[in-house]
């Protein structure tokens, strides 16, 4: 029977809880939620179905100057995010979540419970970015937390197409990000919006986390990105844990207990895709993106540019299976949303695939990289039954997600699960399945 492993939330293609192969079994880790924080050693044991908001809350409960560098959405489950690398608002200062995993408890295909001492070092490497539902069932992770200042600074600055040439600041942002101090993370959202007078415009929001006070941030922004026109009034100083609420679009005066709430975010359909950018995208190309955004209803589509560099440039691409390190300017996340039926689904998925094709010449090539945690089955599907005819197909998506690390992941899979018991549409295959 096909086995799926579910651990907390936000599975882009739903393969942690559905299967085209029936009958199938879901191993639901929903009750594996315990978090134990040890402040003197700056470590924590976190069970696989804890959500990011719960980790942030429990660490802040013990110390307001310790944190963990993972995602910005509090309801993401850690089992999925850590197994795919996991990036967030401190990536330029501290790297990925997976870069701070120091131990794990994994149940292998033989039913043994292994930790870092008892599992092979290659297996310990593979689970920190090689994707979920592939090598076994991770039931807990040991994290090393990071130091954060007592005061951080955040801002959201929005520009619309009705105010100015909206592509100009986005174009200049690309050149600025490589000059930013590693204490500064910057993200740019480009989306269709409804204006107050009922018009449709393209809204561009520049949002940032700075690990320090506003008086140090402003001169830096004026030197590296004067086109934004950032002012002190745009900025808010707060604690790091309050910034978690800010970036989750939760009012910062809300009780931190909201981070412990595990509720559905509502039903909505969407399709997501991703790319990495190594050279700045020409302004004329951005203008073409704007034209495509205007083809859709307001609030239905979004591009998200997330800055890389800083600490990521100093970490080897083979240190974990996540290879998108030095030389990456920023990551693009494409998303389109809808609430209607099948015909609308075709309209919107065809639209985002068209945008993705349009961007091909302007993103990384050979391979055209993608992020495993923004899983995209358009990239090719591995054969669940291990048919040898699908080897080359697995190589296509494997190289996009993992680069040259894919071959090492295959060797690990072959050693620990040669019969391919743990598998999905895009799990790493063993050699025996070729």
UniProtKB/TrEMBL annotation:
Any one GO molecular-function label of the UniProt entry: oxidoreductase activity
Domain FAD-binding PCMH-type residues, every copy: 1-148
Pfam families in UniProt: BBE, FAD_binding_4
Keyword annotations of the record: FAD, Flavoprotein, Glycoprotein, Signal
The protein's required cofactors: FAD
UniProt-listed PANTHER family: OS08G0158400 PROTEIN
Family the UniProt entry places it in: Belongs to the oxygen-dependent FAD-linked oxidoreductase family.
Name of this chain's protein: FAD-binding PCMH-type domain-containing protein
Species whose genome carries this gene: Turnera subulata
């Amino acid at each position: 029977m096909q086995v799926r492993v579910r651990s907390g939330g936000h599975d882009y293609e739903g393969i942690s809880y559905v299967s085209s192969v029936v009958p199938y079994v879901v191993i639901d880790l929903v009750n594996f939620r315990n978090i134990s924080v040890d402040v003197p050693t700056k470590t924590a044991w976190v069970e696989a179905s804890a959500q990011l908001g719960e980790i942030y809350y429990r660490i802040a409960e013990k110390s307001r100057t310790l944190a963990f560098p993972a995602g910005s959405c509090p309801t993401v489950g850690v089992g999925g995010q850590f197994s795919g690398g996991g990036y967030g608002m401190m990536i330029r200062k501290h790297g990925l979540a997976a870069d701070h995993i120091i131990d794990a408890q994994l149940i292998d295909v033989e039913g043994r419970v292994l930790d870092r001492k008892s599992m092979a070092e290659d297996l310990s490497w593979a689970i920190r970015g090689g994707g979920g539902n592939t090598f076994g069932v991770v039931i807990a992770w040991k994290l090393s937390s990071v130091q954060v200042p007592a005061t951080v600074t955040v801002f959201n600055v929005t520009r619309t197409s009705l105010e100015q040439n909206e592509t100009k600041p986005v174009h200049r942002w690309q050149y600025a990000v490589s000059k930013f101090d590693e204490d500064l993370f910057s993200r740019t959202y480009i989306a269709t919006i409804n204006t107050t007078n009922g018009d449709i415009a393209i809204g561009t929001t520049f949002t940032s986390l700075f690990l320090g006070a506003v008086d140090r941030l402003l001169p830096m922004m004026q030197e590296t990105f004067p086109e934004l026109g950032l002012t002190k009034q745009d900025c808010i100083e707060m604690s790091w844990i309050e910034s978690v609420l800010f970036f989750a679009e939760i009012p910062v005066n809300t009780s931190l207990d909201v981070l412990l709430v595990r509720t559905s975010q509502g039903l909505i359909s969407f399709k997501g895709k991703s790319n990495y950018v190594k050279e700045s995208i020409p302004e004329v190309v951005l203008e073409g993106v704007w034209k495509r955004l205007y083809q859709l209803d307001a609030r239905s589509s979004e591009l998200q540019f997330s800055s890389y560099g800083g600490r990521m440039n100093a970490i080897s691409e083979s240190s974990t299976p996540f290879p998108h390190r030095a030389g990456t300017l920023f990551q693009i996340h494409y998303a389109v949303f809808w609430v209607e039926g099948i015909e609308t689904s075709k309209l919107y998925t065809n639209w985002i695939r068209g945008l993705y094709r349009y961007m091909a010449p302007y993103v990384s090539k050979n391979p055209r990289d993608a992020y495993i945690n923004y899983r995209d089955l358009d990239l090719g599907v591995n054969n669940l039954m291990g048919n040898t005819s699908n080897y080359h197909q697995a190589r296509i998506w494997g190289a996009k997600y993992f680069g040259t690390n894919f071959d090492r992941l295959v060797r690990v899979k072959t050693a620990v699960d040669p019969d391919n018991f743990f598998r999905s549409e895009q799990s790493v295959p063993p050699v025996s399945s070729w």
